[in-house]
Specification:
The complex is a heterodimer of chains A (511) and B (314).
Chain A (H helix, E strand, L loop, with lengths): L1 H6 L5 E10 L2 E11 L4 E6 L5 H8 L7 E6 L2 E3 L4 H6 L2 E4 L11 H6 L11 H15 L14 H14 L4 E5 L7 H16 L3 E5 L3 H7 L2 E6 L2 E7 L6 H9 L16 E12 L4 E12 L2 E6 L6 H9 L6 E6 L2 E3 L4 H7 L1 E4 L3 H5 L6 H6 L9 E2 L2 E2 L1 H14 L16 H13 L5 E5 L7 H16 L3 E5 L3 H7 L2 E6 L2 E7 L5 H8 L6
Parallel strand pairs in A: 3-8, 3-9, 6-7, 7-8, 13-20, 13-21, 16-19, 19-20
Antiparallel strand pairs in A: 1-2, 1-4, 4-5, 9-10, 11-12, 11-14, 14-15, 17-18, 21-22
Chain B lengths: L1 H7 L2 H26 L7 H19 L2 H25 L4 H24 L25 H5 L4 H19 L1 H11 L1 H6 L4 H27 L11 H11 L4 H24 L6 H19 L19
The chains are: A alpha/beta (511), B mainly alpha (314).
């Protein structure tokens, strides 16, 4: 052992031969993973590759079927999250594990012993201040978590882990909800923690960010670690994507198109919702032309959902006018907008999009059921529906056991393909897609983007609402930025920069 | 008219208010703990009835009323744990489980009573708890008889309010409990066992339901009858909402119900208003519903209430 220490080679964390099965599925197949003190390790892989399973094993959410975990060379038995916390493992989940109604300090003290009978707020405060000043993670202890911004909530999650003495920090897709500026400040904190000797496992789909922040990368595929590479100058996005999928990925080609007539026109749209008439959209004016992809950027909750729902006819604006292909829309309904040629991919694909508990056929035929040949005189023609769904499964390469499986059993990428197939079958003039690639892996994302670009090439319009700037810059022609229900910027995607968009997203006034 | 007011709002009225509110306060605090952990315990009505029976039987045969209280609390703990088995371990619908537990407990109460006492023409009774005036304090004018001249259970119930508030807001146990009820995932990832916490809350709620139930058969009346609870358990579900899941406000809600109940008794016996007595009996329930409709519109239940917790599964 002394020789190990002398050479500095003893890893902080060493996972050996981790096995985890779910029924017939081998989610982790004898996985080995090492992490050194002060190292930032990127963990990459498509959905279902086993990253999250592996991290849940490390954090004690699952117990492994076989394999061993050593921390600082000591074998650890991690059966519950409490064991992981004691062993110095902290995890920041993709979906925050916070209580909005409690204060910052209360969220920190959960699971902590008190002093005597009482909560030990004094010493918690001292430790919070210490962590804050050390890593630049400032938070007001008395603020209710529900009043924090998303970036601050994430800061709190990291502070929570450090508060519990984490020396190994797992960050699961930490940047998916952040603006570029917030991401930059997260990266500063990560670097500060690494300098301090914390080992960090960084899980992300955003390859540019992975390349920017990590020292080393482990790539998982089908439950195995298939590659471990140093993050040096030779590493490219392309190579990483290839390692993840096991085959080369060609980025979709974006051919120049002439943008034509106005397909969708919103003028001065206001939306007020709820019993207290909260204003969700204010004077939103927006055009989508033929052959154009308009990206909508913004931090989640700044009116994007309402924008999509207004265009799809799910909610009606309280003021303002909508035109589709020159036709004024009066009382808008989902069916009415559909008739005019608007298709909609809702943000919540499991809830508002598909019928998770019913067969795939029913999910796919839902908006088509009233049309010939799928129904006649109010009777559904099952044969025609089945034939259609089988065709779509073939055409969109939807991985499923068949058209009759419960919709909810499909993976996220395949669900999205099914939804896309259905909406494209409506032969839309304009497609409104809200967060269409959230949670999808590289291959599925490329597929979805290719479909959008195909629509664009055919002279149709796409309104793409996304929190992922990389995506917006990859395929949009124009990018509009939403902030507090207003459009605060309308930018040419080939001219603007992520930094400019990020500033607008954060509420800086349009130049 | 002023005569009626004088007749009604005497010191005796306020004393009655406190007395009537006591069992409701116990059960309301119990329900509050359970709901704070994220479980709606609709077993309340049945558990109160069954514990009123078991507590009474134990008191009757042992001659010790306090033993009766202990047995009632134990009864509640057992069926609170059953609620836990159904809603936490098995993750079944909280509504259905709770109603099931109430039906089961009611059935057991009737069955058990017949088994033990048969069908007596005269229901057996015990010498109920006697008033235990607090030395000195009970001598105070006005406040003395209202607050300090009651059976011991009344003092214990009201002392429980600050204790519950302290536990809920100032101890790690309480913070963990609230977190489990708001976001069980947050609690689990901080190393708190969600299931165990919910079991604890359900057993505490059961114990308090039990003591509340036994208060009726051992302190308020001195016998067990099949209508001894008659909907007062259900009322507590509303009182928790009216009390916005806060011990102090819950105490206020229970006192409000107690006041209206005491009022209707006096209106009935005064005979001034000539209405069928059922109308008066209805009054406290009606007022509770109205008060809830007015006050509770902005009340926000614990965010994870009614949601079974499952570890993140794939």
């Amino acid at each position: 052992m002394p020789t190990d220490v002398a050479s500095g080679k003893r890893p902080l964390l060493s996972m050996r031969g981790i096995e985890k099965r779910f029924g017939a599925l081998r989610a982790n197949a004898s996985v080995d993973l090492e992490l050194s003190s002060g190292e930032v390790l990127g963990l990459l892989g498509e959905n279902g590759a086993g990253k999250t399973t592996l991290m849940n094993v490390l954090f004690g959410m699952y117990s492994a079927d076989a394999g061993s975990i050593e921390i600082d060379g000591r074998p650890m038995n991690i059966a519950r999250p409490a064991d992981a916390l004691d062993a110095g493992v902290g995890m920041v989940h993709q979906h925050f594990h916070l209580v909005p109604r409690h204060s910052v300090l209360e969220n920190l003290m959960v699971g902590e012993p008190g002093r005597g009978l009482k909560l030990d707020a004094e010493s918690a405060l001292v430790r919070l201040r210490e962590i804050a000043s050390r890593y630049g993670l400032e938070l007001d202890p008395e603020t209710l978590v529900g009043d924090l911004t998303v970036g601050e909530q994430q800061r709190l999650e990291i502070v929570k882990a450090l508060f519990r003495g984490a020396r190994i920090l797992i960050l699961d897709e930490p940047t998916s909800v952040l603006t570029p500026q917030q991401t930059e400040s997260l990266f500063r904190a990560i670097r500060a923690m690494a300098t301090d000797g914390v080992g960090i496992i960084f899980i992300s789909h955003k390859l540019n960010e992975v390349i920017a922040i990590t020292d080393r990368l482990a790539v998982m595929r089908r439950g195995r670690v298939v590659a471990q590479v140093e993050n040096d100058a030779t590493l490219t996005r392309q190579k990483l994507a290839e390692l993840m999928c096991g085959h080369p990925i060609l980025p979709p080609e974006k051919r120049p198109t002439e943008s034509g007539r106005t397909l969708l026109k919103l003028a001065g749209i206001d939306v007020e919702l709820g019993p207290d008439h909260r204003r969700k959209l204010s004077e939103v004016t927006l055009d989508v032309h033929a052959g154009e992809i308009v990206g909508v950027a913004g931090v989640s909750g700044n009116g994007q959902r309402e924008l999509a729902e207004v265009v799809a006819g799910v909610i009606s604006p309280s003021h303002g006018a909508i035109e589709v292909d020159g036709q004024a829309v009066h009382a808008s309904t989902p069916r009415g907008m559909q008739r005019l040629g608007v298709a909609h991919i809702p943000e919540d694909r499991m809830g508002a999009g598909l019928l998770t508990t019913l067969p795939l056929t029913d999910s796919v035929m839902l908006p088509l059921a009233h049309k010939s040949p799928f129904s006649r005189f109010g009777w559904i023609n099952r044969k025609a529906v089945r034939k259609f769904v089988l065709e779509q499964i073939e055409k969109f390469d939807i991985r499923t056991e068949g058209p009759d499986v419960r919709t909810g059993t499909l993976s996220g990428g395949n669900l999205q393909k099914a939804l896309l197939a259905r909406e494209l079958a409506l032969d839309p003039l304009v497609l409104v897609a809200a967060q269409p690639t959230r949670g999808l892996d590289v291959a599925a994302v490329e597929f979805v983007h290719a479909q959008f670009l195909k629509l664009r090439a055919e002279g149709r319009g796409v309104l793409l609402i996304s929190e992922d700037l990389e995506e917006l810059f990859a395929i949009s022609d124009r990018i509009v930025v939403m902030y507090e229900g207003r459009i605060v910027g309308d930018l040419d995607a080939s001219v603007t920069t992520p930094a400019e968009v990020g500033l607008l997203m954060a509420g800086a006034k349009a130049a | 008219m002023s005569d009626i007011f004088e007749q009604i709002f005497q010191i005796g009225f306020f004393t009655a208010m406190v007395r009537v509110a006591t069992p409701l306060l116990l059960a309301t605090l119990g329900e509050m703990f359970s709901e704070r952990s994220g479980v709606l315990n609709l077993g309340i009505e049945g558990i109160m009835l069954l514990a009123a029976m078991t507590g009474f039987s134990a008191g009757y045969f042992s001659g010790s009323l306090w033993l009766g209280i202990v047995v009632a609390a134990m009864t509640g703990i057992v069926f609170g744990a059953l609620m836990g088995l159904l809603t936490v371990t098995l993750g079944l619908s909280q509504h259905v489980s709770g109603l099931g537990v109430t039906l089961l407990c009611s059935g057991l109460a009737f069955f058990g009573y017949r088994l033990v006492f048969g069908q007596p023409s005269q229901p057996p009774n015990v010498a109920a708890f006697e008033s235990a005036p607090v030395p000195l304090l009970s001598e105070l004018p006005v406040l003395g008889p209202i607050l300090f001249d009651h059976v011991t259970l009344v003092y214990l119930a009201f002392l429980l309010v600050p204790v519950a508030a302290f536990v809920l807001y100032r101890t790690p146990w309480g913070l963990n409990l609230r977190t489990v009820g708001e976001n069980p995932h947050a609690a689990a990832s901080a190393g708190v066992s969600v299931a165990w916490k919910r079991y604890q809350a359900l057993m505490i709620s059961g114990a308090l339901f039990g003591i509340g139930g036994a208060y009726f058969s051992l302190a308020q009346f001195n016998a067990f009858t099949f209508g001894v609870i008659s909907g007062r358990g259900w009322v507590c579900i509303a009182l928790v909402v009216l009390g916005r899941w806060d011990p102090w406000r819950c105490a206020f809600a229970a006192l409000l119900f107690g006041a209206v109940d005491a009022l209707q008794l006096r209106l009935q016996s005064s005979g001034v208003i000539d209405l069928p007595f059922q109308v008066f009996l209805l009054l406290p329930f009606l007022i509770t519903v109205v008060a809830m409709a007015l006050v509770a519109r902005n009340a926000r239940a614990p965010a994870a209430l009614l949601l079974p917790y499952r570890k993140e599964e794939r």
